[in-house]
Structure formats: structure tokens, C-alpha cells
Amino acid sequence: MPTNHESEARFREEMSASEKVFSGRLLQVFRDRVILPTGRETTREYIRHPGAAVVIPYLGNRHLMLVRQYRYPVARALLELPAGKIDAGEDPQETITRELEEETGYAARSIRYLNRFHPCVGYSNELLYLYWASDLVKGSLTPDADEIIENVPMSVEEALEMVFAGVISDAKSIIGILWADRILRDAEFRQRFEIRLAE
Amino acid sequence: MPTNHESEARFREEMSASEKVFSGRLLQVFRDRVILPTGRETTREYIRHPGAAVVIPYLGNRHLMLVRQYRYPVARALLELPAGKIDAGEDPQETITRELEEETGYAARSIRYLNRFHPCVGYSNELLYLYWASDLVKGSLTPDADEIIENVPMSVEEALEMVFAGVISDAKSIIGILWADRILRDAEFRQRFEIRLAE
Lengths: 199, 199
Hints:
The structure is a homodimer. By secondary structure, the first copy, chain A, is of the alpha+beta class.
């Protein structure tokens, strides 16, 4: 049941003016004047983001590779799936191939695209692409000297328990771990995404 | 295995200066100078956000209430679970009680806190609280005249299929629907969160 254009028209907010209010190294912040379907005018503030990619690195034997790294905005080190921002003109699969290797030291001989989603619809246009990586072998890329990243392998059962206990709190990683659970327990689901578990 | 303070110290980035670079009606944007554990200095740009709450409204008979509304940053109407920003000094449960009623017309006689997570760790400190609402009865609050919100009831199976097909793309709603699936198929899980299905 995708949203069709007819139903969309009733909702649409039309931009009447757009202003870039902050241009940083990472963030581009805009404040637009918009006309609501009711005719009233209001402002919308939001981030324009290049998009990102996140990966579920499957180690075999029901284990995933997570990474722990510091996240300044929330002032703590978090357990996450490997992820990274898409560089200009890059295919998200290239992004995640590089990030996987830089953050975990593994290169994947098999990568499957699963889905994409919006992490933050209230104030960002970011679109995040989710991949499954398997048949992992030692790669050659290493993290930037200033990126402190710790590898944390764990079973999908441990990861799920950390999700439901609130220990893993990063939304993209929660989504990836819930997908991994479904992939590992549902053969028909694996077939749909052309995933084979070689064990 | 929660992160402990000892392991956290190796990762910590210390703020040396903080500048508010944009102060809008919705967004507060900061650019901080930070010292990395390696001693190098860099900048971090991020949003300070008051937090938000999201709810899984359970209609009974394996059905949830979703809402469709326009999201200007992504320029389309999205199917989501009801949610809203926390007002200053407000408990997130008050927030979600109000938002549920405004967006769906239903008041909940039972609300359970499930979890909280960070939707956007790369550039926002937002924390999002997830609730389960059941025993729904007609309420009295109505949406703001300028908020166009459509109610879309559906079974958890339909919602799950829309998640895996990429039709539901909002991260907080994906997480809520995957929780709802687990709640509806696992009696032990329900017990853990003191959820009873009165049917």
C-alpha cells in the first residue's frame, strides 16, 4: 500500500522561501517558509544530509560483529552496527564496503541490500541504507588514527537481549539486530533477500 | 553488559569550547571544540533536542493504529506510530498520553513503558521513549486545525510486511512495530513488560 500521488496532495506543504541558516563541516541547516494545505504559513527547520549506510556483519554460527565507539552528541560510548556517511557521488554499497573494513578489519565476500529508512523524519532528510554482509575475510583497510573503535562480537541472542534491556540504544543498530533475528530464524525470509547461510 | 565508566574513559572526547551556531523555533545547533583521547583537537556539530515519545496503540485482535502525516524534511506523507516532542518539564508518559489522543482520538486506559533509544547518534542528543497503549477508549482532544493526520488501523502482520517492503520507512515506527510483533507472539515477553492482552 504505497502512498499514491492523489492521497499525497491533501497533505503537501509547499515551500515559499528557503534559507540556509548554518553551513558546517557536517551539518547543513535550513529554515524554509511553507504554505500548509489549510493555507496558513509556517516555518520548517531541518538538516540536509547526504545519507548513510549501515551493515549487519554476519560472522557465522549466529554471531554478529558490533563496534563500540564514542558518540559526542549523547556523551557516551555506544554499541552499534558499523555505519558511515555516504560521500558525494558514492553508491551506498561502496560506502558500507569501506566502512565495514575500516571499522572491523573485515572485508565481505557477500553483501546484500535489505532496506532503507529515515532515522529522523522530524528534522532531517537523512536516508539510511541497510545491508547484510557475510563470508567475511581479513581486509586491509584500518581506521583513521583518531577513530577509536572497539570490535565486539556477540550472538544475535545476546544482541537482542541488549536491545530489549535498553543497553543497545542506537536506533539503526536496533533495526539491524531485529532484522538479523528474522533472517536467522526464517528461511523463507532469507530466500526473499537472497541470503544463504554458509556454515 | 552495560558500558562501565572504566572502559568509557578510553573513548571520551572532552569539550574545550561550545558555540550555539543556530537557535530556531525547533532546532538548537551547536558546534563544539573537542579534544580526542589521542590529544588531537576537532569540532563536533550537533542538535540539542528536548526528547520525544512514541506509542504503539493496540486496538486488540492483533491490530495497531498508525497515522499518516506529511513530513516536510523528506517531502512526503509517511505512515508512522503516533509520537511527539516532550514539552519543557514534562514526563514522557504525559507527552505520549496527550499525543495519542490528539493524533488518533483515543485515550488509553493502560500505558506501559517499554524502552528508550537514540534515533540519531551522529548529530543529535535526542532520546526517544517507547510506550505500549491498550484498552483504548474515545478521548476528547483533537488535532491542531493545521495538523492533517489520517488514522490508518492495520494488523501487525500488514505493518510488518510494510516494514520489510520499505513502505514504512520511519525508524521509530519500524522499531515500535518490531516490538509489537514480539509482544504479540511471546507471552513471556509480555509478562516482562507487564502487558496483558484483554481479548
